[in-house]
């Protein structure tokens, strides 16, 4: 027979089978680290970092295996856990949202002097294996809502990636040197520039001082150094396709990217608000040491 998980947080105990895997995730602002241990606390693989984006989430999903045989634990760190929690919950995983103060005490009891993301993830996995916290509950209605929101977000992220690839292809023909100066063609800086000057020919005719004053996120400007560098690079560009079709392809794709970026940002807010409305948001105000400001961070 299996054993029952305990009660780190309000929720339902689950039955642990012999082949249960305990997953600890150290939450970071730009990347997370995952560690997996078996029922004895033995690591099943070395801790591995993964990015906070669609490819990173899919990499994690492939590492975790069947949701029924895994129990995931993570700390409620700022707001950085929320998208990952929604993704894993929609995929069918049981997840315990932990108080960082409690896991820190556990690490101290474990006499772990070093502190790295990898060791933190392993410590969280062993905390789950030894303390058996209860899964953080979410009502079925909330799960369905989050699943639909995450599916919509995934589609928008895929659309944004498609548009970015269109821009790359057109730039390879019209102004390949641009990415030497602005590497991410889906960034606000790149799309702002390319809507105004979609080809090398347009950059050659542009006034660097005018380009320098363009605002690309409502606050920051392109700057004279970058504007001059792009105009100079355009003068010797090997791109030979400067006509209207290439201008329109790049300009339209960049406009689409800007729209998709804004929609994804709004969806992230909706996902956060959905979590706040349900048990996860309520839980965070009941965990010792986590107040309303942390919950809404």
UniProtKB/TrEMBL annotation:
PANTHER family: TRANSPOSASE FOR INSERTION SEQUENCE ELEMENT IS1111A (PTHR33055)
InterPro entries, sorted: Transp_IS110-like_N (IPR002525), Transpos_IS110 (IPR047650)
Gene Ontology biological process terms in this record: DNA transposition
Name the UniProt record assigns to this protein: Mobile element protein
One of the Pfam families matching this protein, by short name: DEDD_Tnp_IS110
Domain Transposase IS110-like N-terminal: 23-176
Superkingdom, taxonomy of origin: Bacteria
Organism: Sandaracinus amylolyticus
Membrane-spanning intervals of the chain: none
Single annotated GO MF: transposase activity
């Amino acid at each position: 027979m299996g054993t029952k998980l305990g009660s780190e947080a309000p929720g339902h105990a689950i039955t642990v089978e012999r082949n249960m895997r305990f997953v600890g995730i150290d939450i970071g602002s730009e990347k997370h680290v995952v560690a997996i241990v078996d029922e004895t606390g033995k690591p099943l693989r070395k801790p591995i970092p993964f990015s906070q984006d669609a490819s990173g989430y899919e990499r994690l999903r492939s590492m975790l295996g069947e949701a029924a045989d895994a129990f995931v634990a993570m700390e409620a760190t700022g707001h950085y856990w929320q998208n990952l929690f929604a993704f894993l919950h929609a995929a069918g995983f049981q997840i315990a949202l932990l108080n960082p103060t409690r896991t820190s005490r556990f690490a101290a009891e474990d006499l772990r002097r070093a502190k790295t993301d990898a060791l933190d993830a392993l410590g969280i996995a062993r905390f789950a294996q030894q303390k058996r916290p209860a899964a953080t509950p979410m009502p079925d209605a909330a799960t369905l809502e989050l699943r639909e929101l995450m599916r919509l977000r995934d589609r928008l992220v895929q659309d944004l990636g498609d548009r970015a690839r269109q821009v790359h292809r057109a730039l390879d023909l019209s102004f390949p040197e641009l990415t030497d100066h602005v590497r991410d063609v889906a960034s606000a800086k790149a799309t702002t520039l390319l809507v105004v000057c979609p080809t090398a020919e347009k950059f050659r005719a542009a006034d660097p001082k005018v380009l320098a004053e363009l605002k690309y996120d409502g606050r920051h400007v392109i700057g004279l150094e970058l504007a001059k560098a792009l105009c100079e690079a355009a003068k010797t560009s090997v791109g030979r396709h400067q006509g209207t079709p290439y201008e329109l392809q790049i300009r339209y794709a960049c406009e689409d990217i800007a729209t998709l970026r804004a929609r994804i940002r709004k969806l992230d807010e909706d996902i956060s608000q959905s979590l706040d409305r349900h048990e996860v948001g309520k839980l965070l105000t009941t965990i010792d040491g986590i107040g309303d400001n942390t919950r809404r961070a």
